[in-house]
Write a structure and sequence with these properties.
By secondary structure, this protein is mostly helical. Helices cover 70% and strands 0% of the residues. The protein has one domain. The longest helix has 31 residues.
């Protein structure tokens, strides 16, 4: 088996903002698409964070209190009816 060679360290003078400025004339032609892409990325991030919180509330709402038999019937009916 060949020895593993170390990889080069990332470039220390990396300037992402300068690269973005250089690309702006090309991206400006598609500013509508770029804005739609940015909005959908933000919505996806909100969904990624929000869905577990909503599911937590749903699971917490399904806990039964002792003696509440109506919930025992309502839950299977709700699942069957969709």
């Amino acid at each position: 088996m060949a020895p593993i060679r170390p990889t080069a360290a990332p470039h220390s003078e990396r300037n992402d903002l300068a690269n973005l400025r250089r690309m702006m004339p090309f991206l400006w032609q598609y500013k509508g698409r770029v804005m739609i892409a940015m909005v959908t990325l933000m919505l996806a991030k909100l969904a990624t964070v929000g869905i577990p919180l909503v599911l937590k509330d749903i699971v917490d709402a399904l806990t039964l209190n002792p003696g509440e038999a109506t919930q025992l019937i309502a839950l299977p009916l709700a699942l069957l009816l969709g």
